[in-house]
Specification:
This protein has helices at residues 5-10, 52-65, 76-84, 101-111, 126-132, 156-165, 178-181, 216-229, 235-245, 248-267, 286-292, 310-316, 346-352, 368-378; strands spanning 69-73, 92-96, 117-121, 138-144, 169-173, 191-195, 209-213, 272-276, 299-304, 321-322, 332-334, 358-362. The protein has 379 residues and is α/β, with parallel strands linked by helices. It folds into 2 domains: 5-245, 3-Layer(aba) Sandwich (Aspartate Aminotransferase, domain 2), CATH 3.40.640; 248-378, Aspartate Aminotransferase, domain 1 (Alpha-Beta Complex). A 7-stranded mixed β-sheet has the order 1-7-6-5-4-2-3, sandwiched between helices. It has a 5-stranded mixed β-sheet with strand order 8-9-12-11-10, covered by helices on one side. α2 (52-65) packs parallel to α9 (235-245) and α3 crosses α4 (101-111). The longest helix has 20 residues, at 248-267. The radius of gyration is 21 Å and the shape is globular.
Length: 379
Amino acid sequence: MKSNLSTLLAQAGNRKDPKTGAISVPIYQTASFGHTGLGQSTGFDYSRTSNPTRLVLEETLAAADGGVKGFAFASGLAAIDAVLHLFHSGDRLIVTEDLYGGTFRLFEQVFRPLGLDALYVDTSNLQAVQKALQSPGIKGIFIETPTNPLLKIADIRTISSWARAQNILTIVDNTFFTPVFQKPLELGADIAVYSATKFLAGHNDVVAGAVVVRTAELGERIGFFQNAIGSILGPQDSWLVIRGLKTLPLRLQKQQENALQVATWLASHPHVKLVRFPGLPHHPGRDILDREQIGFGSMISFEIDAASRVAGILSGVKVFLFAESLGGVESLITYPAVQTHADMDPATRDRLGINDRLLRLSVGIEDVNDLIHDLEAVL
């Protein structure tokens, strides 16, 4: 029987230990596995290649996204690193221009010196994407949607159809929406990547990454790189992500409800000049979300009227925590220009809108009145 997503996630790892009937999948904290004889294997040999706890997580991730194969990595950047190994020196990728600073650093400081060229484009602009697809040597397109921290929305269905017509791989960073709100593979993408540290795990207690692929061929190639490079997720951390997945739909629904109220309140505040939240009626790309029946998430970015207010806001909040990362049950506030996007040069940040007045909120599951009162006190 095919289960709905909430049922699939709530029962992730159940019935995996018939010997004891454990409801929670055991943590197989072992590096190696014994063999009963020459040429005989239990299906597990060495935990870098596969581990029963990690396998449960990977199978759950694949099922949640509608993919053929899932892979769990030591971090979101490790997951992206494995995907970028699909390409070769001289290849070019179209890349979302206002993406997470760590991904930008990976493209610019690790893969560009190796000959992989990133062509940065506003992927929320279909005309810009279509033009970039005519550039020579394009082998892939890497889309972050919504973008971090400007929350721009890309039309995955249209872009991936164009890319497939030219035999170009479409990769979507789906960290902000997760399979609960958006399934890139069902929209035509070839690969979905995640920082599982964020919403998938959801408790700010584990660093992890994930890749889900559409075809068996891609699964074989990513599986090879995962094993060969060895940037795998350990069994304890795999269990923590499984634990987080069980409440993912519930958490996201509450976080989204809170975020809509916080964003609506911010939009009316005299010291707030601009609010970016996909759930607001006039947010660019809202029509795409409505058409594809995609949720809005719980990330907000907003600009205040003066950069001089930033330090007081960050030191004054009592409910929000001034910290990097996002997606956990606790609400966080971040200053992208000096935290998540410090590796971008100032001119590029300013051009994109990641300026010294921009703050980013990851809205958690607390009482929304406490969150609004906290912001009211510092604004």
